[in-house]
Amino acid sequence: MATFGSQGHMSRLLAISDPGDRLVFVGTKTERTSLELQGRILSMAEFGRLRLRTLDYFTKDQLDLRDFDAQGNFKFPHGVPIVRGWVFNPQPLANDLLKQRLTMLATPGVEELTDPADIAAILALPSSPFEPPPNQQFDRMRRVNDALKPTTGPTPSNSTYEVEKSAMETSWTYAMRFGSTSIWKIGHALSVSGRLGEINRHIPYEIGIPFWKIEFQQKWPDAITAHAMEQKVLEILDAKRTTGERINCSQRELGTAWQRAIVGD
Questions:
Q1: Counting Cβ atoms within 10 Å, is residue 258 exposed (0-12), middle (13-18) or buried (19+)?
Q2: When comparing pLDDT for 169 and 149, which is higher?
Q3: Closest CA to 184 of 138, 239, 140, 249
Q4: Quick one: which of 1, 125, 122 has its CA closest to 57?
Q5: Bridge partners of 214?
Q6: Assuming Cys at both sites, which of 111, 124, 152, 221 could form a disulfide with 106, CB separation 3.0 to 4.6 Å?
Q7: What is the H or E stretch that residue 4 is in?
């Protein structure tokens, strides 16, 4: 995982990036980095667009004890999954390779490289690929991110997406309720009202059957993240699923799962 001390820094990374974008890691000039690596461009990683909590996937003994405060709280609780990565060899000094100078923002959060020449220089560096260490829970979440087991179709992407016009447009995760019953339908869409109208067109209202109606909706910067939340809700309520993306549970149960999915719990 690439971890952050605040949810805001993690959210900013997802807001300014596209699927397939990469994080570049630079050695900080602190005692935590060996002297020979300080200020050097060390590695690069492609990351998944899921909002995770570090301690959901790693135990305390797998993490650096210096990253826990006096009360035992982990200092970097938020993160995104690393899908694949590369280690550079040689590892040049950032100030020698890049025209752009990194600011203090690059340490707790992320700083966007905007100069095409800087980006090209990094991509041209000799590198060796590496695989993230095995972790059963993390591997499962990576599979969710890649939508190997989708409920409503393939993972959204700019090249293949069956419903939305573009995976990178603002999207919504929604929960529809069938009348006043305990049957819910979880999904994501560019337009919630449009999706609601489409689904209700198949209801034979002439015989008095209830309509679907929207009860919950959450806005996201792209369809990738909206899809990820949809999957998280369905995962939390897996024992309540009936068929496809439908679940049978109380409004309170859904509300609890909904909030957990938003914060990545």
A1: buried
A2: 169
A3: 249
A4: 1
A5: 176
A6: 111
A7: strand 2-4
- CB within 8 Å of 94: residues ≥ 6 apart: 26, 39, 40, 41, 102
From the list 157, 178, 175, 177, the residue with the least C-alpha distance to 167 is 157
pLDDT at res. 148: 33
Whole-prediction pTM: 0.53
* pLDDT > 90? residue 4: yes
Q: How far is it, in rounded angstroms, from Cα 71 to Cα 75?
A: 11
Q: What's the CA gap between 265 and 260, in Å, rounded?
A: 5
Give CA–CA dist 195/98, Å, rounded: 46
SS3 content of the chain, % helix, strand, coil (to 5): 35, 25, 45
| Band of residue 147 on the pLDDT scale cut at 50, 70, 90 | very low
Position of tokens 């939305």?
164
In the chain the first and final C-alpha atoms are separated, in Å, by 16
